[in-house]
Amino acid sequence: MTLRETFAANLRRYRKAVGLSQEELAHRAQIDRTYVSSLERCQYAATLDVIEKLAVELGIDPAELLAGAEVDELSA
């Protein structure tokens, strides 16, 4: 899995976990809703500034959006 794919999967997972729509997350992070959709579909690569904005609104550390699968998850 590429870093862009990992970011996209983590973004979608964390967004859904906190119960936000793409539109609501985009509004809170002050970015366009279509951009959030494009990030989740791996069409665009996010800048560090955007990663930080999204992480703040999701209540997580920015590194969590880039973190790969845990070793235990891979062996399951």
Task: Explain how this protein is built.
Helix 2 packs across helix 3 and helix 2 packs across helix 4. The two termini are about 15 Å apart. Mean pLDDT is about 90; it is low at about 70-75. This protein has 6 helices and no strands. By secondary structure, the protein is an all-alpha fold. It has a single domain, classed as Orthogonal Bundle (434 Repressor (Amino-terminal Domain)), CATH 1.10.260.40.
The CATH topology label is 434 Repressor (Amino-terminal Domain)
What are the secondary-structure elements, in order, as H or E? HHHHHH
* Domain tally: 1
The name of the CATH architecture is Orthogonal Bundle
Oligomer kind: single chain
CATH class annotation: Mainly Alpha
CATH homologous group name:
lambda repressor-like DNA-binding domains
Q: Any low-confidence stretches, pLDDT <50, length ≥5? A: 70-76
Shape designation: globular
β-sheet strand percentage: under 5%
- Number of helical elements: 6
- The N- and C-terminal alpha carbons lie at a distance of 17 Å
Rg estimate, integer Å? 12 Å
How many β-strand stretches?
Answer: 0
The major sheet is characterized as: none
- What share of the residues lie within helices? 55-70%
Could you report the average pLDDT, rounded to the nearest whole number? 91
Structural class: mainly alpha
